[in-house]
Design a protein that fits this description.
The chain has 4 helices and 5 strands, in the order E-E-H-E-E-H-H-E-H. It is α+β, with helices and mostly antiparallel strands and 131 residues long. The protein has one domain: Alpha-Beta Plaits, CATH 3.30.70. Strand 3 and strand 4 form a beta hairpin. Helix 1 packs antiparallel against helix 3. The chain is globular. It starts with a strand and ends with a helix. The relative contact order is 0.26.
Length: 131
């Protein structure tokens, strides 16, 4: 399967993470292959904003273009920082513009046991248990 993973990129709060950061995983599927390029470009813009957002510990992006699926893994100092980013102009504009292309989405968030960057395997487990 063709896939692309942009590795974990630390955010501005990574230098002093809390003992139990908030981690979020999103799985996003678009309706058709024709939506993949636009969704990828929008995802890169949102990822760039997340890397710079207050309270961001870091972010990673994984895509499976032929499956029309994207995953975003991010960590935050607290729920307030995560929710502030979700309400930010960049994120809100992207989600509004991409809503017609969306087939399905799933999310999970949890308090991590360690301040280390989250692992994809743990994120996938959390996502499966949230379903």
């Amino acid at each position: 399967m063709l896939s692309l993973t942009l590795p974990w990129t630390p955010g501005p709060a990574a230098a002093a993470p809390p003992a139990r950061p908030v981690v979020m995983i999103a799985e996003l599927e678009v309706r058709a292959l024709r939506h993949v390029p636009g969704f990828l470009l929008a995802s890169l813009k949102v990822r760039r904003a997340a890397r710079r957002a207050p309270g961001s510990l870091g972010v990673a992006l994984r895509t499976a273009p032929l499956r029309r699926t994207f995953w975003v893994l991010s960590a935050w100092t607290d729920h307030e920082s995560l929710h502030a980013f979700v309400r930010s102009d960049t994120h809100r504009a992207a989600m509004t513009a991409l809503r017609p292309a969306m087939a399905r989405s799933a999310f999970a968030d949890w308090a991590a046991d360690t301040p280390a960057a989250p692992r994809w395997a743990e994120a996938e487990r959390q996502l499966a248990s949230a379903a």
